[in-house]
Design brief:
Chain lengths: 335, 289
């Protein structure tokens, strides 16, 4: 239990590494095929599925920070909310080209992550958790007070994006929204995978495993972490902008403590340190939430509470590692 | 002048409640290194028990307080054995956050199922409804009572930690758990006793503070950030640090609400960031970080 939770590097056999690489490679085509299949199979739930795709990108950003940098944060929504508001404000006042809006959201999310990350990432443990919470609360408070720009607690509405690439108009049924969100998610996933596999990504993993040794080798752990935090902030900002563009509104809850905590729950549900874990966790969480919360939000809390406790106690790696372990055991049984 | 006096009285009373609840969290964090996000839920459970005992069973206020504290401790001790013991230690931060958030959700859902989503009150006895005069001024009796209980808690904890065998063992285990165990201190029992102490304090604070932190199912989630802020600023495991941090935060928060009602939260969190940026181990760096 403790061995898993401390994220000690497990010795990986060549075979397992190969298998994981294959899984990683298969993730994108599988995601595309399933995403398109869902488009045909559930034409009435496109709104929900659009939200799932945008949220998956957001959880992916948290996975970069937590799974690959080891930064425990309860403030990822600060970047998501900043991106959403930046894109929303730009859409109302300046431009309405959707991809430009995503870029604006990404830049805003990255900037806020860079500034706050440089301020807070020297801390660890409870102090860091508190600092991330404080950041997200301040962002929310600013959004609440700047009513003229953000609409305050009424939310920001009136976002009317132009057709994607000048070709595909956002229709009433949300078809364009969904396909656009799915495409952005897949591109984001590919970029994230590239980052994770780059020398920079490996260095970040090194910082996570042993910051002291990285420092001894001449690297600066804090600089790596701040850069990673900013990069993940770009992802979260794009995810926020994507939500703003596809849903047409931005609310105060997009920069809330509970939205940060929910991202953490989704990520852990799927399994940290694997990019596809973030996607699987988001799909599982949002689907169950959709089914349970429609009857009574407290049923949902009971369920997710018990589920979280069960994961920590019995399946510390989340869904993906649970499946991997079952598969592993089955294979050993056959041999 | 009246305003300043009001701010001080309300702020100190509020701070004392924050202290009574948070100090339990601080002690368990200092000793067991566990970030217990369910701490606020324990305080809430005690408040609901006291409310039920007073309103439905007709117990007097003091009896309801004692019953609530005892029942909460008894109810949470099995959790220490079954859940918390597995996640002690600073290496398990993420597991701690997740497990205790999960526990909080379950408690919130359970409380809502049992007591419903409406606001619950704990009726105060007549003795606490009037005012107490100090020289030319008079202050509400309930505030005076809370301040008195808070001061008594500070003194009691100081005596417990500095003047008793239990306190010596506890401080030894905070400094170096392995060495303490090697010297024959039964750390497991110590952990359990400390957990019970922390929960009991949370329970007392939940009941006493029901006037200031109103009881509703989302109590557990709404106020936990506040309690954690006290611990982070005060430094884990430090009683006087917690007291000073709680009083400071209580007064700042109250002053913010009185004077600049629109920006209270903002200044609260900005102050938190500045303090933790300069003193990452807490303003009153305790024995353990």
């Amino acid at each position: 239990m403790s061995a898993v939770a401390t994220n000690r590097p497990r010795r990986e056999t060549a075979g397992r590494r190969l298998r994981r690489a294959a899984l990683d490679g298969a993730a994108v085509p599988v995601m595309a095929v399933l995403g398109l299949a869902a488009f045909w199979l559930f034409p009435d739930d496109l709104g929900l599925m659009t939200r799932i795709a945008a949220t998956a990108l957001y959880v992916l950003s948290l996975d970069l920070v937590l799974g690959f940098g080891g930064i425990a944060t309860l403030g990822q929504a600060a970047m998501f909310g900043t991106g959403a508001y930046a894109a929303g404000i730009a859409a109302v006042n300046l431009v309405n080209e959707p991809i430009t809006l995503l870029a604006i959201g990404g830049v805003a999310g990255g900037l806020i992550a860079l500034v706050t990350g440089a301020l807070i990432l020297h801390a660890r443990g409870l102090t860091l958790l508190m600092l991330t919470i404080a950041v997200v609360q301040i962002v929310q408070e600013v959004a609440n007070k700047a009513r003229d720009w953000t609409g305050g607690s009424d939310g920001l509405s009136g976002i009317d994006p132009a057709p994607v690439l000048g070709l595909f108009r956002f229709d009433l049924y949300g078809r364009t929204s969904y396909l656009f969100a799915l495409a952005v998610l897949i591109v984001g996933y590919l970029v994230a995978r590239r980052i994770v596999r780059s020398p920079f990504g490996l260095a970040c993993r090194g910082v996570k495993e042993d910051p002291l040794r990285v420092a001894a080798l001449g690297g600066s752990p804090k600089r790596y972490l701040v850069t990673l935090y900013a990069v993940a902030g770009v992802f979260a900002g794009v995810a926020g902008a994507l939500t703003a563009v596809t849903s047409g509104i931005v609310g105060l809850d997009s920069a809330s403590f509970s939205w940060s905590a929910e991202a953490l729950v989704m990520l852990v549900l799927g399994g940290t340190g694997r990019l596809y874990g973030a996607v699987i966790g988001t799909v599982a969480f949002m689907t169950i939430h959709h089914i349970l919360a429609s009857s009574d939000p407290f049923h949902w809390m009971l369920f997710i509470g018990l589920f979280l406790m069960a994961i920590v106690l019995f399946a510390p790696g989340g869904i993906t590692s649970g499946i991997e372990r079952v598969v592993h055991r089955l294979k050993r049984g056959r041999a | 002048m009246e305003t300043v006096f009001g701010i001080v009285v309300d702020g100190v009373a509020y701070g004392m409640i924050l202290f009574i609840i948070s100090v339990g969290l601080s002690v368990t964090l200092g000793l067991m290194r566990v970030v217990n996000l369910a701490h606020g839920a324990f305080a809430m459970v005690a408040g609901y028990i006291a409310s039920y005992a007073a309103q439905r069973l007709g117990l007097p206020y003091a009896a309801a307080l004692v019953v609530a504290v005892l029942l909460t401790v008894v109810a949470t001790l099995p959790m220490e054995r079954l859940l918390y013991r597995r996640i002690y230690g600073s290496a398990n931060e993420l597991s701690q956050v997740l497990l205790t958030i999960g526990l909080t959700f379950v408690i919130v859902a359970g409380i809502n199922y049992l007591f419903g989503p409406t606001l619950k009150r704990i009726p105060l006895p007549d003795a606490l409804l009037g005012t107490v005069s100090i020289g030319p001024k008079s202050i509400p009796a309930h505030r005076a009572f809370v301040i008195g209980m808070g001061a008594a808690t500070i003194l009691g904890l100081w005596w417990l930690l500095e003047r008793t065998d239990f306190g010596i063992k506890l401080r030894a285990a905070v400094d170096d758990p392995n060495m303490a165990a090697a010297l024959g201190i039964r750390t497991e029992r110590l952990y359990m006793a400390t957990f019970a102490l922390g929960t009991g304090l949370a329970a007392m604070g939940g009941v006493l503070g029901a006037e200031l932190l109103p009881l509703e199912p989302y109590y557990a989630i709404r106020y936990i950030v506040l309690f954690l802020a006290v611990v982070a600023v005060g430094g884990a495991g430090s009683i006087f640090g917690s007291a000073a941090a709680a009083l400071a935060l209580g007064i700042v928060d109250t002053a913010g609400k009185y004077l600049i009602p629109n920006f209270g939260e903002f200044f609260f969190y900005a102050a938190l960031i500045l303090i933790l940026f300069r003193w990452p181990h807490g303003f009153f760096h305790g024995r353990s970080a």
